[in-house]
User: Which sequence fits this backbone?
DNA sequence: GCGAGCATGGCAACCATCCGGGATGTGGCC
DNA sequence: GGCCACATCCCGGATGGTTGCCATGCTCGC
């Protein structure tokens, strides 16, 4: 309620001096500064961010758009981003697109008019849509996280998705699996396409023929993964192991296996990309390929603030981080040939 | 970059007409409005939120402070709040206090200077601290969520924590348990104290003597719950069932049981407050008392916007929502007396 | 021809910041 | 001892973009 004028009046100085006392203490004598600060405290004055941003042409706000806030991957990302941003004096405007490109678009509009100093974007839309919308508000620095796309020259922080998928697939192969199912994300986005590529690479490296019937696209969502898993396990020759390309799909897969009455890892081995806090609490403890989520968040904020402060300019680049395998209990050697014969004899698994 | 002036010039109208075209279409003729809108599109103009809030004395921002963004309860709350707020034209400034009252205090300062229109606060500090800090910036409407405190006359949306704890404890009693451990939250906050009270009420109702040795405070955190569970199970007469007063403590408890080599529900039954998406995916599927999280978020936003729009005034009230029991697989009848004798004979459980 | 009503424009206010200028005081040098 | 140069402090005023209020001017109808 109190304005800078009220403070100035109470302290018996000019408005400018009040401002200087706060923002550039060197310009004001110690004594006067104390008098001003005391007045500020008395009136419980706080500068109005709106007026300040109007004058400074910068808001001290960072926009963060994630695809699904309930996904633990993004939750952890949000935590990291908020923490670092806050340390650097920025507040975070959180937007959740809920996997809806239209909502993402709307959020971008809002962020633009809020005049945020920068945007961290985990895009949900396909590339073309995002491109057109982003082009319209190119003024503010943007850093992509998780999913990248070329063509706009933006900075991006992503996982080495090929490597991650390779690690997961290779782990299953080492345990003796040859028929490995894949719950894939949409190949229209880099995380989907690259993880599929890594899976194929790993198969190739072990001279296992790629079987398209074992790859089902499940849109990174739980329910679709559930359906896909049921379909996979009802194949004439079901896979002995399944690799889910993200955490949500791993959940759907586990639920399906449970309903189908299949035990893990006894009947089928399971691995996924994305580690999360609860993966090691229940049975089976999930073997996963973990992403350095926190590091991704920190790096994204750093790239962004570097650009905001002008320490970084020109075309952006893609920063690729490495995943690592976390071995727990959900992967075992495949069931014996005899048993798989039995399974094959009865197409619909018991429940 | 384009200002309202540029638009006015291009459309050949005054600045005021541009503003009216956007905000009060009735005041401008159809034809002129179209000309203006076209100019806006051509120049890709967006009003600057800072200037607008300066003029309107309101920012269109809602502050949301949660205690721990990685806790699924708060995650879901954030999702609900963001969704509804966005629908109502508000953006959400997300703050994560990470269970640190000092950070919460800092976030409050920031929100105050951002001149947010309202604050939804899931406070982490004890009552006295929050009280003093909140008093200093009483100008903006505040709605408490999850944890309430009296004295400031603020609106609050909370769970009927007594009922929830009663439901959980009673369920265990019905299954035949008489020695029921409690991993309690800190009794300095309402959620901690009320859940303890509900536990005691349920015991009393079934004429089971309250045994203080079976109640350990674990601060709503995972690691402390882990330690507490180990301690509980090493008692001369360990409980046959344990009730964790929130989700994080349930996780810690499950981890401890796993390390101790105790099977659930065979060796010990388990129940907790807070349901979450993964509770029914792994083994054992957790029996929980679910909170209507989404509803809590919606109600909090509604109360807040009602106040912001002046539809609501005067002293706030506490709104209590009911939990419901979700029965899954983690509660069974207690082990036979013979077996508990055996357990008692060997104080340190095998691992 | 006059009045009513509507479309449009002008102007001030919102509040913090920053640039440049002005005022005061101090020290040194002739 | 007096004057000038300089440093230290402080203040005035302009700036930014938008909106609400009020005035103006125009047109249409009676």
Assistant:
């Amino acid at each position: 309620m109190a304005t800078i004028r009220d403070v100035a009046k109470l302290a018996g100085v000019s408005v400018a001096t009040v401002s200087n006392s706060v923002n550039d203490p060197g310009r004001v004598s110690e004594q006067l500064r104390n008098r001003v600060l005391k007045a500020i405290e008395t009136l419980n004055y706080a500068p109005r961010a709106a007026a300040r941003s109007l004058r400074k042409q910068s808001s001290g706000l960072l926009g963060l758009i994630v695809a699904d806030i309930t996904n633990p991957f993004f939750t952890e990302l949000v935590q990291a981003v908020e923490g670092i941003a806050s340390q650097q004096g920025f507040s975070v405007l959180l937007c959740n697109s809920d996997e809806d490109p239209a909502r993402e678009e709307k959020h971008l509009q809002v962020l633009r008019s809020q005049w945020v100093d920068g945007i961290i974007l985990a895009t949900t839309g396909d590339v073309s849509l995002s491109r057109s919308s982003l082009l319209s508000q190119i003024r503010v620095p943007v850093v992509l996280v998780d999913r990248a796309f070329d063509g706009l020259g933006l900075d991006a922080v992503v996982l080495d998705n090929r490597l991650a998928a390779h690690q997961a697939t290779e782990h299953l192969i080492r345990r003796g699996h040859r028929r490995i199912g894949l719950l894939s994300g949409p190949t229209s986005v880099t995380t989907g396409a690259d993880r599929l590529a890594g899976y194929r690479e790993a198969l190739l490296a072990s001279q296992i023929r790629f079987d398209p019937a074992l790859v089902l696209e499940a849109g990174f969502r739980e329910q679709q993964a559930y359906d896909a898993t049921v379909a996979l396990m009802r194949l004439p020759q079901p896979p002995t192991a399944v690799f889910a390309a993200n955490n949500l799909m791993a959940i759907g897969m586990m639920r399906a296996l449970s309903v189908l009455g299949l035990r893990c890892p006894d009947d089928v081995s399971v691995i996924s990309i994305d580690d999360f806090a609860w993966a090691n609490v229940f049975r089976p403890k999930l073997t996963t390929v973990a992403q350095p989520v926190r590091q991704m968040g920190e790096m994204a904020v750093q790239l962004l603030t570097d650009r905001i402060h002008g320490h970084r300019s020109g075309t952006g680049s893609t920063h690729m981080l490495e995943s690592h395998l976390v071995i727990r209990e959900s992967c075992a050697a495949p069931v014996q040939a005899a048993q798989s014969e039995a399974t094959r004899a009865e197409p619909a698994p018991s429940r």
